[in-house]
Design brief:
Blueprint lengths: L5 E5 L3 H12 L3 E5 L3 H20 L5 H9 L1 E4 L10 E4 L5 H14 L5 E4 L6 H6 L7 E6 L8 E6 L5 H13 L3 E5 L7 H17 L5 H11 L6 H8 L1 H15 L8 H8 L16
Parallel strand pairs: 1-2, 1-4, 2-3, 4-5, 5-6, 7-8
Antiparallel strand pairs: 6-7
Helix pairs in contact: 1-2, 7-9, 7-10
The structure holds acetoacetyl-coenzyme A.
Acetoacetyl-coenzyme A binds next to α2, α7 and α9.
Length: 284
């Protein structure tokens, strides 16, 4: 099993910055990339604010938080990831974008490096086929928010080697996570089950079965979930929920997975959830 010294994270959004944080907290050197300094600045501020919350709750000492920050570097150039042992791609849920980034990383990373994707539903086998190292491509799917959520879903492509799986499982465990393994199948396990529930909550809203408050309170208190499905959709991002639903619908070809027209309309309106200030709910 390969030893991991440096991890690259591509994307400094809520998932990328959260993944960078948990890896740095696990005593790993991390280099986080995004398109511009503004995105990297937002990512670093999110990490710093998350670490401060842990310090305030005495789950972490100030020294540990400072040491975590010191293990993080940022860059706008993927070239600077050349010495990474593992790169975790965490950009938007767009297959064309992901394959472009994988193709670029494949050319510049050392031959032994592993290419992992945080994709929440796209085929790992297809992403792997866009590289010259399909045996070293794997899905490493963190849950949102990564610093709090215990699970990492690991997805093997058809060519993924056992040693690569073992290395990524050990990396997830070193980051304090518990692993669940899924076959490379549309939506994997978590989103195959979660997204139809969120989609159905949008149908309930569309059909006037209940208000957002009633739907979320019903599901939160009636099924003991930390938050209702509409609030969770706002946290995940409605655009992400829609693209996952589309991947499941296209991949399985069953009309029961058709995205709710109201979800489509919210995304068309730019109501993407917490990140845009408005989704089902309003955020300041
Ligand atoms: N870092 C550190 N602490 C954080 C944090 C972060 N990023 N985000 C929230 N917290 C802390 C807050 O400080 C707060 O602490 P106290 O209770 O001690 O004050 C606590 O967590 C609760 O936070 P909020 O008051 O902000 O409550 P919230 O309801 O808005 O959020 C939550 C908390 C952890 C998100 C919780 O509601 C939850 O677990 N929700 C479900 C999340 C979930 O299901 N995620 C998986 C989504 S599916 C997925 O990710 C897969 C995919 O591909 C789409």
């Amino acid at each position: 099993m390969a030893s991991i010294r440096v991890v690259g994270v591509v994307g400094a959004g809520q998932m990328g910055s959260g993944i960078a944080q948990v890896a740095a907290a696990a005593n790993i050197q991390v280099i986080m990339a995004d398109l511009d300094d503004a995105a990297l600045g937002r990512g670093m501020r999110a990490i710093s604010s998350s670490l401060s919350r842990f310090v305030k709750k005495q789950l972490l000492s100030q020294e540990e938080a400072d040491a975590t920050m010191s293990r993080l570097r940022t860059t706008t150039s993927l070239q600077e990831m050349h010495d990474a042992d593992v790169v975790i791609e965490a950009v938007a849920e767009n297959e064309g974008l992901k394959t472009r980034i994988f193709g670029e990383l494949d050319k510049l990373l050392k031959p032994s490096a592993i290419l992992a994707s945080n994709t929440s539903s796209i085929s790992i086998t297809r992403l792997a086929a866009s590289t010259q190292r399909p045996k070293q491509v794997i899905g490493m799917h963190f849950m949102n928010p990564p610093p709090l959520m215990k699970l990492v879903e690991i997805v093997r492509g058809i060519a993924t080697e056992d040693e690569v799986f073992d290395t990524i499982k050990a990396l997830a465990e070193r980051c304090g996570k518990i692993v669940s393994c899924s076959k490379d199948y549309p939506g994997f396990i978590v989103n195959r089950v979660l997204m139809p529930m969120i989609n159905e909550a949008f149908y309930c809203l569309l059909e006037g079965v209940g208000s957002p408050h009633d739907i979320d309170t019903g599901m939160k208190l009636g099924t003991n979930q930390p938050m209702g499905p509409l609030a969770l959709a706002d946290l995940i991002g409605l655009d992400t929920c829609l693209s996952i639903m589309r991947t499941i619908h296209d991949g399985l070809g069953d009309s029961k997975y058709r995205p709710c027209p109201l979800l489509v309309q919210y995304v068309d309106a730019g109501w993407l959830g917490r990140k845009s200030g408005r989704g089902v709910y309003f955020y300041t």
